[in-house]
Structure formats: C-alpha cells, structure tokens
Amino acid sequence: MTKPPLALYLAAPRGFCAGVDRAIKIVEMALRKWGAPVYVRHEIVHNKFVVDRLREQGAVFVEELEDCPDDRPVIFSAHGVPKAVPAQAQARNMIYVDATCPLVSKVHIEAERHHEAGLQIIMIGHSGHPETVGTMGQLPPGEVLLVETVEDVAKVEVRDPSKLAFVTQTTLSIDDTAGIVAALRARFPQIIGPHKEDICYATTNRQEAVKAMAPKIDAMLVVGAPNSSNSRRLVEVASRAGCSYAQLVQRATEIDWRALDGITSIGITAGASAPEELVDEVIAALRTRYDVTVTEVETATENVEFKVPRALREPA
Ligand code: SF4
C-alpha cells in the first residue's frame, strides 16, 4: 500500500539547551567521581526518559533533602533551589553540587541585588514550579511576590509602589510575559526590571522557531514532558500562531493518530529538556504511516555552553 505524503518541518533550534546539557553532565560526572548512589533533589531536568536513564546508572531521585543520607553526594536540579537547601546540606556536612542553570542563578543574583537596594520584588512565574520556588526562596518571606497573569497585577499588594523591581521565570511565554510586564509598568511606573525580561535564549529561540513554522503546517508535535514549562509554552505558541492542532508528546506512543487524520504537513519541535532520541523516535513513527519529506526550519543558531562546577573537574 502506498503511504500518503507528509511534509515534515523540523524546528531548529529544538531540544536540549546548555543548562540541561550541563545538569545531565553533572549527574553523570558525579556518578563517575563518587560512584552510585548519587542523590538528586527533584528531577534533574523535567524529562522522564532522561531521569530513568540516570536512575539506571545509579542516581536516586528524591524530592527533599531530608530524604538523602548524610554520607552520599546530592545534586540540586537545573531549576534552582531556595537558599535554605544548600544551607541545610552544609549544616549536615554533605557533599553537594548545584546544577542550577547559570541563567537561573543570574535571576537569583538580580533578585538579591534589588533586595539589597531596598526594593521589594515581583516575580512573574508559575506558582509551584521549582524554578519559581527556588527564586522566591533566595529572599525572606514577603520580599518576593508572585504574579502569574495580568489580572494578578491589578490585585498584588505591595509595600511601597515606588520601591519595586521585577524578575521573571526563564521559561515563560514571551508574548504573555510582555503583557504582564506592560501591566506592571502601567500600575507601578517606577518599577525596575531587566532590559528585556529574564526569559532565556533557549526558550526564546524555541518559541521563535515554532512561530515561524506554525503558519505552514496542519499540525505540530512538541516532544516534551507535561511538567516541562518551556515544552508546554511551545504548544501554546504553536496554537496561537495559527496551527490548528498542537500536541505535547513524551514518546511516539502518545501520538494521537486520529487527530492527525488527513494532514499533509506537520511540524516537530522539542522542549529544552527533551533528548534528540525522542525526536528521532517520533519521526520514525511518522515514517511508518507516511511518505515523509523532512525540511529543517532554522531560525537561529546556538553555541552556548556552560562549564560544570570545578568540584567535578577535580579528582575525588
Ligand atoms: S531552559 Fe534556559 S534557563 Fe532553563 S536550563 Fe535551559 S538555558 Fe537554562
């Protein structure tokens, strides 16, 4: 039986960013240096496939530091942790390695600097996301207020409207954030913020690539995990940019074939924590049903690399 033709547009850049790459390397190097088990507080990056592979190598994933023994190394995930976490590890004399992405650490430093200057901070982010919890946890309670929407901006109660700064989560929707920043500036004209926002290069580039592809395609598959903020944003960006069907899939087995019935073009991208193997798996699954022609849509090139902490570059 002849397969129907399918024009497949592959977003570039897609998948792993420099922060995720570094965080995974940190766990692998820690396992080589100290042997198994190495504890990891929270999923090192939000991807089950990555976590399962590291678990097979001897990483043990826990949610709280209390779940780690004193005598084994522990790694803090790429999303960042409240200040209390390394302080507790230090008090227990534990070996710990912080895999917080340097671009998240930059936001932590920004928040601290504003605090030292006597400003209260408004964070634009998603409630309960580990990055938001980590950034808010850099300062004492009440010093960082969270807003998630334009509506929240109207309700937020601040100490002094003339002494405010804002920071953002790194993986937000560029367009939604611009709206929230505009609302903040309208209500608090003296608010201080970063030149653009704190949304990172990887989030920006992946969203821009999706925007460029969306008008050309009948459907978009975003390879990523449901708890990955930047992956979920890619689905929203695709829908808003005019793609009539966009689905988040962790693996090829999650593809909803009925929803793809009758399509002649499709776009594929991957969130910053999704490995390329999973993109290949999805393409292979499409090839079983369609005569696929692949075109890469490159909207940016990335050459960002972050060094792993020195502790891991030195022998045990
Ligand atoms: S998505 Fe951005 S902030 Fe998050 S780990 Fe990657 S580079 Fe760092």
Keywords:
316 residues; alpha/beta; Cobalt-precorrin-4 Transmethylase, domain 1; Rossmann fold; five-stranded parallel beta sheet; four-stranded parallel beta sheet; 11 helices; 12 strands; flat; binds iron/sulfur cluster
Tell me the series of helices and strands, N- to C-terminal.
Answer: EHEHEEHEHEHEHEHHEHEEHEH
Q: Mind telling me the CATH class of the largest domain?
A: Alpha Beta
DSSP strand count? 12
Strand content: 15-25%
Give the oligomeric state.
Answer: single chain
Number of domains: 3
Low-confidence stretches: none
CATH topology of the largest domain: Cobalt-precorrin-4 Transmethylase, domain 1
The 3D shape can be described as: flat
Assigned CATH superfamily of the largest domain? 4-hydroxy-3-methylbut-2-enyl diphosphate reductase, catalytic domain
Largest sheet: 5 strands, parallel
List the helices and strands and how they pair.
Layout: E1 5-12, H1 18-34, E2 38-41, H2 48-57, E3 59-62, E4 74-76, H3 84-91, E5 96-98, H4 102-116, E6 120-124, H5 130-136, E7 144-147, H6 150-155, E8 164-168, H7 174-187, H8 201-213, E9 219-223, H9 229-240, E10 246-249, E11 265-270, H10 276-289, E12 291-298, H11 310-313
Parallel strand pairs: 1-11, 1-12, 2-3, 2-4, 4-5, 6-7, 6-8, 9-10, 9-11
The protein binds iron/sulfur cluster.
Iron/sulfur cluster binds at residues 17-20, 78, 101, 103-104, 170-171, 200, 202-203, 230, 272.
